[in-house]
Specification:
Elements: E1 2-6, E2 16-21, E3 28-29, E4 34-39, E5 44-48, E6 53-58, E7 65-66, E8 71-76, H1 124-133, H2 151-160, H3 197-212, E9 215-223, H4 225-240, H5 247-261, E10 268-269, E11 276-277, E12 284-286, E13 288-290, E14 293-295, E15 298-299, H6 307-322, E16 336-340, E17 359-363, E18 367-372, E19 377-390, H7 396-411, H8 413-416
Parallel strand pairs: 12-16, 16-17
Antiparallel strand pairs: 1-8, 2-4, 2-7, 3-6, 4-5, 6-8, 9-19, 10-11, 12-15, 13-14, 17-19, 18-19
Helix pairs in contact: 5-6, 5-7
Length: about 425
């Protein structure tokens, strides 16, 4: 049987150029094999096949523009799957900014042109990166499918050219010297363990945010004694209906109310750097711990949802994250993010702002503490709050006011119902 293999859901991207066709007519492919590579002005991504079999016809060429639903291949084979089955689309591999690219420490061949790389199997983004760091792709063996050279291969070659400890360090991006390579095997047994793909993808984005955003973290505490009593009552009922009510549901609800009162915390900095983009929607991202690394699903239109609906969304998105079933659209469009470590521990931390957002809220484990009520100390359940923010958009006074508003909402259940 023959089947059309189409471009699956690729999020908000539309009319994206095809930069590399990764298969040829006659190739035998499996479900999830990468078949083409797309590259927008923001990211590169591989499109996986939704069917298994032999490639009979290729419907796109390099330079063509495709969107969700565009036909890529015609596949024939008894094991072909359904074209309507949505495969797992790989998250965009965000390229590091140009100025962050490290330079080779030792003298290297002159930067190669595309013509010099004409016989090299690598994407344009990898070619551009290799030119910037002066690595000759013709000398590398690719670790990708069919010998395709990946960015990781270029970075590995770059590390192997690093000077020995004690030598003059090469200057990294923005004049920052890179961390020198150390041969740890001289001191004891070592093993190289491949990082999960999620960490490989999120690492450059986190690095970019940390370098570009002037981070400040404001720490505070909220009294959640009464809230937690009510939460436990709701959770008891929810378990009978097949879902759970956690503290995070209440924090999301309270955060939306606080964001409405302090709109700058829900904004983004305009690309010209002179304006703030005021958003009249409230999509709350939350960090989900999965076996493969941290993922950030997004609860859309949280301001239009009650505690029950938010709790159900949390459960469904968390399950999809753990099972690897999140789609690109499930992780896009956040205006504010919450990272909760309460189930693990800690007293405070500095979460990294998830640009282009301008703030992120960190939660650690709540604890009983003696609190002065005006006449005596009494035991209260206190919830630590850590708000990291972009100081260009939010000053210290605004951050403090936001946290005061948030802790007031968490401390008085009646305000959450307004």
């Amino acid at each position: 049987m023959t089947i059309e293999v189409k471009v699956p859901d690729i999020g908000d991207f539309d009319e994206v150029p095809v930069v590399t066709v990764l298969v040829s007519v006659g190739d035998t492919i499996a479900v999830e094999d990468a078949i083409i590579e797309l590259e927008s002005d923001k990211a590169t991504m591989e499109v996986p096949s939704s069917a298994a079999g032999v490639v009979k016809e290729i419907k796109v060429a390099e330079g063509d523009k495709v969107s969700e639903g565009s036909v890529v291949l015609i596949v024939e084979g008894e094991d072909a799957g359904s074209a309507d089955e949505a495969p797992k689309t790989e998250a965009p591999k965000t390229e590091a900014p140009k100025e962050e690219a490290p330079k080779a420490a030792a003298p290297a061949p002159a930067p190669k042109t595309d013509a010099g790389f004409s016989k090299v199997h690598a994407s344009p983004s990898v070619r551009a990166f290799a030119r910037r760091v002066e690595v000759d792709l013709n000398t590398l063996n690719g670790s990708g499918r069919k010998g395709r050279i990946l960015r990781e291969d270029v970075e590995k070659a770059l590390k192997s050219a690093a000077p020995a400890a004690g030598g003059a360090p090469a200057q990294g991006g923005m004049g920052i010297p890179p961390i020198p390579a150390v041969d740890f095997s001289k001191f004891g047994p070592v093993e190289d363990v491949e990082m999960p793909r999620i960490k490989k993808i999120s690492g450059p984005a986190l690095h970019r945010s940390w370098l570009n955003i002037p981070h400040v973290t404001h720490n505070d505490e909220a009294d959640i004694t009464e809230l937690d009593k009510y939460r436990k009552e709701m959770d008891t009922q929810a378990k009978e209906e097949g879902y759970r009510v956690t503290l995070l549901s209440f924090v999301i609800k309270a955060s939306v109310s606080a964001l409405k009162q302090h709109w700058e915390v829900n904004s983004s900095i305009h690309s010209d750097g002179d304006k703030l983009i005021k958003k009249d929607f409230y999509n709350i991202g939350f960090a989900a711990d999965t076996p493969n690394g941290l993922m950030v699903p997004v609860i859309k239109d949280a301001d239009r949802k009650g505690l029950v609906e938010i709790s159900k969304d949390l459960m469904e998105l968390s399950k999809a994250a753990r099972e690897g079933n999140l789609k690109s659209k499930d992780m896009q469009g956040a205006t504010f993010t919450i990272s909760s470590l309460g189930g693990i521990g800690g007293t405070s931390f500095t979460p990294i702002v998830n640009a282009p957002e301008v703030a992120i809220l960190g939660l650690t484990r709540s604890k009983m503490a003696p609190v002065w009520n005006g006449s005596e100390f009494e035991p209260r359940l206190m919830q630590p709050l850590s708000l990291s923010y972009d100081h260009r958009a939010i000053d210290g006074a605004l951050a403090a006011r936001f946290c005061v508003t948030l802790k007031g909402l968490l401390g008085d259940m009646r305000k959450l119902m307004w």
